[in-house]
Amino acid sequence: MTNTDRPLSLYGFLRPRPEHADEVRRTLSSFVEPTRQEPGNLQYHLHEHEDGRFFLYEVWRSQEDLDRHNATPPLRAFLANLSTFLEEAPEGYFDTMLSPYPEAEPLPA
């Protein structure tokens, strides 16, 4: 099985500036349900850590699905102004899943 046959995970932390924490929380929360309805989304979770950081965990069926998600206007608008809202650069990771994902449908050949 090649890497393109496995789901992709994207996860990381965002530390909002204190004066923007509520706005970042509202914005990130507003992405959850619409993103879960997007084709190719297998998981999308938002967590708030006790130190004020937000943790996002996403699983996508393919790079194409993730690229389509990243092109959505609300996400693009948020990302365009991200440095305004955050104290530091996001800490993010992007990986191919090694463990099987039972709900993932195989990609067409």
From TrEMBL:
Stored InterPro entries: ABM_dom (IPR007138), AI-2_Isomerase_LsrG (IPR050744), Dimeric_a/b-barrel (IPR011008)
GO molecular function, one term: monooxygenase activity
Keyword Oxidoreductase part of the UniProt annotation: yes
Top-level division of the source organism's lineage: Bacteria
Residue intervals of the ABM domain: 8-94
Keywords from the named record: Monooxygenase, Oxidoreductase
Pfam families assigned to the protein according to its UniProt record, in alphabetical order: ABM (PF03992)
UniProt xrefs under SUPFAM superfamilies: Dimeric alpha+beta barrel
Keyword Oxidoreductase tagged: yes
Its EC number(s): 1.-.-.-
Protein name listed in UniProt: Quinol monooxygenase
Organism: Streptomyces exfoliatus
Origin organism lineage: Bacteria, Bacillati, Actinomycetota, Actinomycetes, Kitasatosporales
